[in-house]
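Intended use. Records like the one below are meant for learning the mapping from a protein sequence to its folded structure. Do not use them to infer anything beyond what is encoded.
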Amino acid sequence: MSDGGNTMKGIVNVRVSNARISFELRLERNITILSGDSATGKTTLVGMIRDEEDGRSSGVTVQSSKPCRVLTNADWQYRLASITDSIVFLDEGNSFVKSEAFARTIQGSSNYYVIITRESLYQLPYSVLLF
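Structure written out for the chain above:
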């Protein structure tokens, strides 16, 4: 795992499960990139968290010492300003992730960030988890 100079915030374990599947993540840095081959469950993980966050009766259970949130393109700056001391998940396709505005906004934040992308985010220091 590469830390890219990122500071340690403390280890946070996250378990997301339903009747069919279970994911376990160990976050050691405040910015983590989830990387891996297609069809390994990265987008499924984010979808399960979104379902649980929205209160859908999907049978999803999220176990974590911090609230888990999903951030999308829609009003990302406004939404992110109201999220503190949480784990923020971002799926592929969020174009703002590559922006300098996003990098400035999340550095020094009280949140952890889990970003699913296949692109390098040169403006951010991060750890990488292979999925």
